[in-house]
C-alpha cells in the first residue's frame, strides 16, 4: 500500500509518500480501506516530537479515518466487507475497570490512531472492531473523517465534564480550529449562548454561521472586557480552553462566580498563569478533559448523522500533498478541517 510516513521528527519536509506492506488484521480487528483522513494538531505535534513521548519509526500519522471495510480476521456480527464506516480514534483494552466504566481514555493501554499506533495517512489501516462506526449512505467520507476526534473532544468537554446547561454563557476560543468549531455547535445543541473568538473577520463570520451568538476578534479586541460587556459584567459560565499559555489567564478572568473552565490542550504552551485568589474567591472549577469514550462518540454521532452537528471541511487534498496540508494547518490559514483523500 501507499502511505505517508515519517522516519524522524522534524518539519513538514519529513513527510514522505512510500510503499509499505499491507497491514494484516488480527483477532477482533478490521482492515479498513481509507477514503479520507482528517488532520489534527496532534499530527503536527507527533511529527515534530513531544517531550517524553517516543514514536517507533517509520510511523504513519492520521487520527481521523473514514472508508470501507476491506477485510475481517474472522466474521464479526454487524460488519461486512465493503461497509462504509468511520473510526473511533482511541483504542483501549476493553477489560479494565476504566474501560468497563466507560472511561476508555483513562485506560493504561489507551492509544490513539496516528499517535502511538499507525494511523490513516495510508491506503489501509487496521483497528479493533469495537472502533468501527457504520456510516449512513448520505454521509460523505470527507465530512465523516472530519467528525470523530474534535467532536468527541468537544462533547466530553462540554457535556460530560462541564455539564453545560440551557441558557448558560459559554466562551469558545479559536472557533476556526477543529475543537473550536465543534464546541460552538455542541454548546448550541444544549441551548447555551455562545461567545466565540477568532483571529480574522472572515473566521468570525463563519463562527456566526455555525451558531455563535456573539463573536470577538482575539487579535484586536480585549476578550475579557468584551465578555463582561456581553454578559452584563457577570462573566461566562463555561470556558472551552484548548489554546493554553496565550489565553489561560484571560480564560480565568472571563469566568463568572462558580464558573467552570475545561481544557483539552495547550497549543501555545503548557504553562498558564493562574491567580489563585480568583479561583477560591469566585469558587471556580478548573477541569481537564482528554479525548473521550466510545460511548460518548456514539452519543454524539446520531446528531451528526441527522445534520444537527455539521463538520466543516476547509480543503481536501490528495494523500501525496500531506506536506502542503501540514503547512496550511501550521499557518492557521484554515477554518475547520483539512482532509487527505487516499
In short:
The chain is an alpha/beta fold and about 350 residues long.
Describe this protein with a few key phrases.
342 residues, seven-stranded mixed beta sheet, 2 domains, Quinone Oxidoreductase, Chain A, domain 1, alpha/beta, 26% strand, 18 strands
Give an overview of the whole structure.
- Helix content is 27%, strand content 26%.
- The protein is of the alpha/beta class.
- The protein has 2 domains: 2-147 and 311-341, Alpha-Beta Complex (Quinone Oxidoreductase, Chain A, domain 1), CATH 3.90.180.10; 151-288, Quinone Oxidoreductase, Chain A, domain 1.
- The strands form 4 sheets. Strands 3, 5, 6, 9, 10, 17 and 18 form a 7-stranded mixed β-sheet that branches. A 6-stranded parallel β-sheet has the order 13-12-11-14-15-16, sandwiched between helices.
- Helix 4 (148-161) crosses helix 10.
- The longest helix is centred in the middle third of the chain and has 14 residues, at 148-161.
- It is globular and about 60 Å long.
- The model has no long low-confidence stretch (mean pLDDT 96).
Question: Any chance you could write out the topology, listing elements then pairs?
Answer:
Layout: E1 2-6, E2 16-19, E3 29-38, H1 41-48, E4 59-60, E5 64-72, E6 84-87, E7 90-91, H2 97-100, E8 111-112, E9 124-128, E10 132-134, H3 141-145, H4 148-161, E11 169-172, H5 178-189, E12 193-198, H6 201-210, E13 214-217, H7 223-230, E14 236-241, H8 248-253, E15 255-263, H9 276-281, E16 285-288, H10 294-305, E17 313-318, H11 322-330, E18 337-341
Parallel strand pairs: 11-12, 11-14, 12-13, 14-15, 15-16, 17-18
Antiparallel strand pairs: 1-2, 1-4, 3-5, 3-9, 3-18, 5-6, 6-10, 7-8
